[in-house]
Amino acid sequence: DIQMTQSPSSLSASVGDRVTITCRASQSISSYLNWYQQKPGKAPKLLIYTASSLQSGVPSRFSGSGSGTHFTLTISSLQPEDFATYYCQQSFSARLAFGGGTKVEIK
Amino acid sequence: EVQLVESGGGLVQPGRSLRLSCTASGFTFGDYAMSWFRQAPGKGLEWVGLIRSKAYGGTTEYAASVKGRFTISRDDSKSIAYLQMNSLTTEDTAVYYCSRDYWSGSNLFDYWGQGTLVTVSS
Q: In sequence order, what E strands does chain A have?
């Protein structure tokens, strides 16, 4: 099975900061990589799909890049509503998998 | 409006069984694969399994952690997906979510239910 590794597991940042989260796959997954945001007590929300496509309604400060085994999610200017946990997910193989998550906290 | 509502969660003893339901509305249920996920308290997301639409054979896939114990099925006439959980252990304690494929075969998920809590404890 494909393993997904996110880093860092948590980070502290201030409003307005540029934030980058990394996700690595244990084997090439082409561009079959998606990003979700989850707030406490809520279901995940799709932000980015197929590595770089912005889901409808998601602010343009979110962007994704990468292919193969290395991917990044960037928030260009962190807003108060962006403090949450972010997960990557591979959709390359039928046995789906998430990264361990990155919790973005207020500095 | 697309809605997914999970039900059937609760407290169950180790070794027992439980069946969760995911009732869908607002879209043509039979056209979509449906997946189940779970999140243990304070932990990350874990994919549990999926069932493809009839157009893709209605076949299922499972995570290694639940294969042989959990079974996913669907009733397209009622727009419901089921998760039958057998031989439950304390490790299965989690909030269980259902979700639908963004598009057929995409294996990514645009709509999610609110989740239902399953607690396995004696």
A: 4-7, 10-13, 19-25, 33-38, 45-49, 53-54, 62-67, 70-75, 85-90, 97-98, 102-106
Sign of the torsion formed by the C-alpha atoms of A21, A26, A30 and A31 = negative
**CA pair distance B101, A96, nearest whole angstrom:** 12
CA distance B62 to B70: 8
| CB-based contact B85:B70 (threshold 8 Å) | yes
Residue type, B59: T
Give the model confidence (pLDDT) of A26-84 as tens digits: 999 999 999 999 999 999 999 999 999 999 999 999 999 999 999 999 999 999 999 99
| Neighbour-count burial for B23-37, b at 16+ CB within 10 Å, e otherwise | bbeeeebeebbbbbb
Give B54-75 pLDDT, tens digit per residue: 999 999 999 999 999 999 999 9
C-alpha separations of A38 from A50, A70, B30, B63 in Å: 19, 22, 27, 21
Q: How are beta strands B94-101 and B34-39 bridged, if at all? A: antiparallel
Residue B68, sorted as left (phi over 0), alpha (psi -120 to 50) or beta, turns out to be left
A83, A18 Cβ separation under 8 angstroms: no
Residues of chain A found within 8 Å of residue B35, distances taken between Cβ atoms: 96
User: Residue A13: what residue type?
Assistant: A
Q: Which of A44, A91, A97 sits opposite B106 (nearest CB)?
A: A91
Query: Across the A/B interface, how many CB contacts are shorter than 8 Å?
Result: 55
Q: Tell which residue, B35, B40, B47, B44, has the closest CA to residue B6.
A: B35
